[in-house]
Design a protein that fits this description.
Elements: E1 2-9, E2 27-30, H1 37-41, H2 44-61, H3 77-101, E3 106-109, E4 114-117, E5 120-122, E6 128-136, H4 146-151
Parallel strand pairs: 1-2, 1-6, 2-3
Antiparallel strand pairs: 4-5, 5-6
Helix pairs in contact: 2-3
Cofactor: FAD
Protein name: Mycothione reductase
GO molecular function, one term: oxidoreductase activity, acting on a sulfur group of donors, NAD(P) as acceptor
Length: 153
């Protein structure tokens, strides 16, 4: 069983923790989904890029009130999507490459992390690890536990 100084579950905001203070420390990053987390891949950043495309289209449709003759001939959704993810996907891939290949003290596990004991984690890859410190930065989804839902609360 491999032991780490620090294990980080999630590669979004948790991935920003390891800096020069962790040089010489053994680090594990565990990620089941797309490297970089929700904000980079499907949240804040792509949303703002889609909104900007909508604002450009809206500006064209209101240009006349500024004395500018312009028409909106159409919106090519597939081109917008291609542009957004053509910029985001390389950032995600670069972040994973940096942690996997360029950070000699870091190991990236691509699987669903599950605690099996005190500071003991099944990596979802067939390997179990331990760590002195564990950061859970995996994000969340709202759920009502069955016990509460069935109680009528």
């Amino acid at each position: 069983m491999t032991h780490y100084d620090l294990a980080i579950i999630g590669s979004g905001s948790g991935n920003s923790l390891p800096d020069e203070r962790f040089d010489g420390k053994k680090i594990a990053i565990l990620e089941e989904g797309t490297f970089g987390g929700t904000c980079l891949n499907v949240g804040c950043i792509p949303t703002k890029m889609f909104v900007y495309a909508a604002e450009v289209a809206r500006t064209i449709t209101t240009a006349e009130k500024y004395g500018v003759d312009a028409t909106l001939d159409g919106v090519r959704w597939s081109d917008i999507v291609k542009r957004v993810f053509g910029r985001i996907d390389p950032i995600s891939a670069g972040g994973e490459r940096y942690r996997s290949e360029d950070s000699p003290n870091t190991t990236v596990y691509r699987g669903h992390a599950t605690f099996t004991g005190d500071k003991t984690i099944d990596t979802g890859t067939g390997e179990t690890i331990t760590a002195d410190q564990v950061v859970i930065a995996a994000g969340s989804r709202p759920i009502i536990p069955e016990e509460i839902a069935s109680s009528g609360v």
